[in-house]
Amino acid sequence: MLKDIIIQQKKEKVKLITKDFIPREKIAEAKRNLSSDLIKVILGPRRAGKSVFSHLLLKDKDFAYLNFDDDNLVNINNSDEIIKSIFEVYKKPKFLLFDEIQNLKNWELFVNKLHRRGFNLILTGSNANLLSKELSTSLTGRHFAYELFPFTFTEFLNSRNVSISKDTFHDPKTKGEILNHLSDYLLHGGFPEIVVKNYEPKQYLATLLDSILLKDIVKRYNVRFSQKIEDLFTYLVSNFSLEFSFTRLKNILDFNSTHTLQNYLKYLTDAYLIFSLNRYSHKVKEQINAPKKLYLVDNGFIEAKSFQVSKNIGRLVENCVFVELLNRKYRINLDLFYYKTRNQKEIDFILRKGIKVNELIQICYDLSDPSTEKREINALLEGSEELKCNNLKIITWDKEKEVKISKKKILFTPLFKWLLTKGSA
């Protein structure tokens, strides 16, 4: 039985590695570490391309493959039988690739056993908590972790055969075409199958979400009130990038307790659907107690599942920038926060480098009203004084300029240019 499953999955693997795929930006770094004897772990939401990424990583290597997201493997927990069957089918593979490893009971014991025997392991997983908990205990210091999200805008353009060069930023025709692609990216997001196979975004993402909620949350955590978690996600996706508090959410959605609400939020976070961003303060207690802001892993979920009377492009831009900052390895609530000045002026993102605040970023889609520009500038100037940071930026739709006020320089940068320029935040 197990051998038959591995043989079938081997056929799927052979088909997969013969196909052409969009190169992922993080593949070069992963390849540099491939020969290391540390375990390579690729984390991220379902359908973001973790399996394809892993196969691309090992395309020219001799590797065995086993996908634990197969219902036929649910009740198999004999690690020796798994190892025997793998080597019966693959003989002597140099690498072992295990997809969705969190579905294997006591997976960390199985992985540790193979690691001790000297096998080079690559794991993928869609549950941040289940994996990170064991990675930080059982596998401490013995692994590399990579987070893979849906396509970046660069990868999105690559999938549409749009080449980027320095001239791109100056040619009006090319710039207009890129802004057209960017509008599509902001609305429908970057899940690979939507982008590459032209699946209808709303239907695809609604189905994906239902699968994640049922399989990764309701069943895994024995959630009794499944409608509650659906209602919670719908509310959050309709109010993304806005402040929220646990107490207010509990009252609005009629949860019995704040504790239950926090558990449900954690389930959604662990499944890589949402992220909660703290308000920056020098005092950790104030960070914990202050309202948080909510972001989605992909803009497509907003269009597919939120209740909207009109599209708020500015907030879509903000969510897009947030996810790109994650792709640039800014760590939520460690390097990346939002901020409110003493006069309650909000700064969308503050970025830290070490213990210092390194950059302040405002998002402003529409600068046609001079009062809007003045408001955003004043918030940055106030935040600059309070946080002792002079690296100030406003990300716009397509306006680019530099403004100097009170000996401070504020850089206005078009979103498309910021997304396609990886050298700086």
Name the descriptors.
single chain; 425 residues; alpha/beta; Rossmann fold; Trna Endonuclease, Chain: A, domain 1; six-stranded mixed sheet; five-stranded parallel sheet
Question: What portion of the residues fall into strands of 2 or more residues?
Answer: 15-25%
Q: Please estimate the helix content.
A: 40-55%
- The averaged pLDDT comes out at 92
Strand order of the largest sheet: 9-10-11-12-14-13
Structural class: alpha/beta
Number of strands: 14
Question: What is the highest CATH level, the class of the domain at 2-147?
Answer: Alpha Beta
Shape: globular
Q: What's the architecture of the domain at 2-147, going by CATH? A: 3-Layer(aba) Sandwich
Kindly report the CATH topology of the domain at 2-147: Rossmann fold
List the uncertain runs. Answer: none
Q: How large is the radius of gyration?
A: 23 Å
Main sheet overview: 6 strands, mixed
Q: Give the distance, in angstroms, between the N- and C-terminal Cα atoms.
A: 51 Å
Query: What is the assigned CATH homologous superfamily of the domain at 2-147?
Result: P-loop containing nucleotide triphosphate hydrolases
Separate helix tally: 18
Structure description:
The chain is of the alpha/beta class. Among the domains are: 2-147, 3-Layer(aba) Sandwich (Rossmann fold), CATH 3.40.50.300; 312-425, Trna Endonuclease, Chain: A, domain 1 (3-Layer(aba) Sandwich), CATH 3.40.1350. Helix content is 45%, strand content 18%. The chain has 18 helices and 14 strands. It has helices at 2-17, 27-32, 50-57, 79-90, 107-116, 128-135, 153-159, 172-188, 192-197, 201-218, 226-238, 246-252, 258-270, 284-289, 300-305, 313-327, 370-387, 415-420, and strands at 39-43, 63-67, 95-99, 120-125, 143-147, 243-244, 274-277, 292-296, 336-340, 346-353, 356-363, 392-396, 401-405, 408-414. It has a 6-stranded mixed β-sheet with strand order 9-10-11-12-14-13. A 5-stranded parallel β-sheet has the order 2-3-4-1-5, with helices on both faces. Strand 3, helix 5 and strand 4 (120-125) form a beta-alpha-beta unit. Helix 1 (2-17) crosses helix 4 (79-90). It is globular and about 70 Å long. 37% of the residues are buried. The mean pLDDT is 92.
